[in-house]
Design brief:
The complex is a heterodimer. Chain A is an alpha+beta fold. In chain A, 24% of the residues lie in helices and 29% in strands. Chain A is built from five helices and 13 strands. Classes of the chains: A alpha+beta, B alpha+beta.
Chain lengths: 225, 312
């Protein structure tokens, strides 16, 4: 474990160096323990792959007190804390009509598009982090056989619901935005709805499975082409 | 009761104290780029802390009052006119229904705060009215003010005509020193690179906005190409591949993968955000302990700040 200053009112805690479910579970457990221990002195937490950014109120506490609390919390973490989150199933219409890069990605991987779909939807992913944009969940790890680097020129408009792969990560775009990930399909489920409760179907630590659906089902579920 | 937008200017945004505690769903802070000027505006108006005001970037805002109320303009030096008559800044001023309020383009600094008695009455989203355009959240509809917008506000509020004496008003210049707490991936920047960063001046680039201020100057090298994406705090100074620092501000994304040489003190970020493209920035290292003291001193200074009252 490493703990560093990240600013006048923030510390960053590193619980590992790589992307793994074990490290991610430790980040989750640490977040829960630190949230409890800091109480009202805590302003916000940003869990990510292997780190946890801890933002505190610098007028009610200080970095030394927060660092001491964080160290105590980490010392008390046990394997029992590494509980799994919920499993969320997200429907995906995989087709070149909505996944402009599906065929190129399959060709680069030396397999059929059906194989790519079978591999992508046959893997259980972990929500490692949420950020970049509201509701954007970083999911990993994508099977190495279908991992693909980002596009050299990002698209100016990736539509809402786009299901995409970048390296060994996959994600569903919560809103239309620019993006350089490889598009393989589209999900009719909204990933961020400010008016819904909860606003997002997933949170960090949850598991996600993708389920292949056909065009009719996609449209019936409210998907937009 | 309301105020109507006649001309929105370059960038006018409704802001409150900012959106806190929502990073876990990917929402950033928003809020005023210059909190000192924003808070003083509300204090002069005897409003609750964090009442919604308009952050006017660069100026050019024209409004029409549709209610009898009181307003106050703080921050950057922008000429304020009510019915063509020039009015003092940092002072609570009465307006009556039908009055035109005009904030001209900034002569010095670039962020002004126009507050109103009782604050603008806007429905918060995720606990805050702060507008973050990139996320389409806050304000009237997640966007900057546009001609024809109607900004609801309370009626019948009576206010003392408080003002801040001129010698206590902040001075806005074209050069500023930003204190930086080293940390984060500091070890990936060798001593030579750190010395380079702290001993040269940087210029504010054209690409400076509420997400971050991009600076131009001697390139800083880092011995890692990228890092595993991690949370980014306010003021974090990212060094992308081109070596040109970016100071991340209120509308930054919550997670990123560039190495960071340190984080700027919020008090100095407020001054940085008053710089226009071409402004000069110097960085000075500060310990976390000294930063803590600086924050407490500034807070204490704010609390002891007293206003005078204009009497007819």
């Amino acid at each position: 474990m490493e703990l560093h200053s990240a600013g006048e009112n923030a510390l960053i805690l590193y619980l590992g160096k790589e992307t793994s479910p074990t490290v991610s579970a430790r980040v989750q457990a640490a977040a829960a323990a630190i949230e409890q221990a800091l109480g009202v002195d805590l302003v916000d937490l940003v869990p990510s792959y292997a780190s946890l950014l801890i933002i505190y109120n610098a007028l009610t506490t200080d970095h030394m007190a927060v660092a001491a609390t964080v160290r105590d919390c980490i010392a008390d973490l046990s394997a029992d804390d590494e509980a799994d989150g919920n499993t969320v199933v997200l429907p995906v219409y995989y087709h070149p009509e909505v996944g402009e890069d599906l065929e190129a990605l399959a060709a680069a991987a030396g397999m059929s598009t059906d194989d790519v779909i079978a591999i992508h939807s046959g893997t259980e992913y972990r929500v490692y982090a949420i950020g970049f944009a509201p509701g954007f969940a970083y999911l990993g790890q994508v099977d190495e056989r279908i991992a693909a680097p980002r596009q050299s020129t990002p698209r100016l408009k990736v539509p809402r619901g786009a299901v995409a792969i970048a390296d060994r990560q996959t994600a569903v775009y919560p809103a239309q935005s620019p993006g350089g990930w490889n598009l393989i399909g589209r999900c009719p489920q909204r990933m961020f709805d400010p008016k819904a409760t909860p606003t997002m179907p997933v949170s960090v630590g949850d598991k996600v499975r993708f389920e292949a659906i056909d065009r009719d089902r996609f449209l019936a579920l409210g998907g937009e082409l | 009761m309301s105020v109507k937008v006649i001309q929105p200017g370059l960038l006018s945004l409704l802001q409150d104290g900012g959106r806190l505690g929502q990073h876990r769903i990917g929402l950033t802070n928003g809020g005023p780029l210059d909190p000192e000027a924003f808070h003083t505006c509300n204090r002069l108006l005897q409003n609750p802390e964090g009442s919604t005001a308009i952050e006017v970037s660069f100026g050019g805002l024209q409004l029409e009052a549709q209610v009898d109320t009181f307003i106050c303009l703080t921050g950057a030096i922008m000429t304020l006119r009510i019915n063509q008559q020039e009015q003092p800044r940092w002072e609570v001023l009465p307006v009556t229904a039908g009055d035109s309020i005009h904030i001209e383009f900034a002569e010095q600094g670039c962020r002004g705060y126009l507050g109103i008695a009782g604050g603008f009455d806007v429905e918060p989203s995720f606990t805050s009215t702060a507008t973050v355009m990139r996320e389409g959240i806050g304000g009237l509809n997640g966007d900057k003010l546009a001609a024809g917008d109607v900004l609801p506000c309370p009626a019948g509020e009576i206010r003392q005509r408080l003002y801040l004496e001129e010698h206590l008003q902040p001075k806005y210049e074209d050069i500023t020193t930003v204190r930086v707490i080293p940390g984060y991936q500091q070890k990936h920047f060798n001593r030579y690179q750190q010395r380079r960063f702290f001993s040269h001046g940087y210029t504010v680039s054209d690409r400076c906005d509420r997400m971050g201020y991009r600076l131009e100057g001697p390139a800083i090298e880092c011995d890692i190409e990228g890092i595993l994406s991690e949370g980014i705090c306010f003021g974090a100074i990212q060094i992308p591949a081109d070596g040109q620092p970016i100071v991340l501000l209120n509308d930054r994304q919550t997670i990123g993968g560039y190495p960071k040489i340190g984080a700027a003190l919020s008090l100095d970020c407020a001054r940085l955000a008053q710089l226009r493209p071409g402004g000069q920035v110097h960085f000075a290292p500060i310990t976390q302990h000294a930063a803590h003291n600086a924050l407490h001193l500034a807070n204490s200074f704010q609390q002891r700040l007293t206003f005078k009252e204009r009497r007819a």
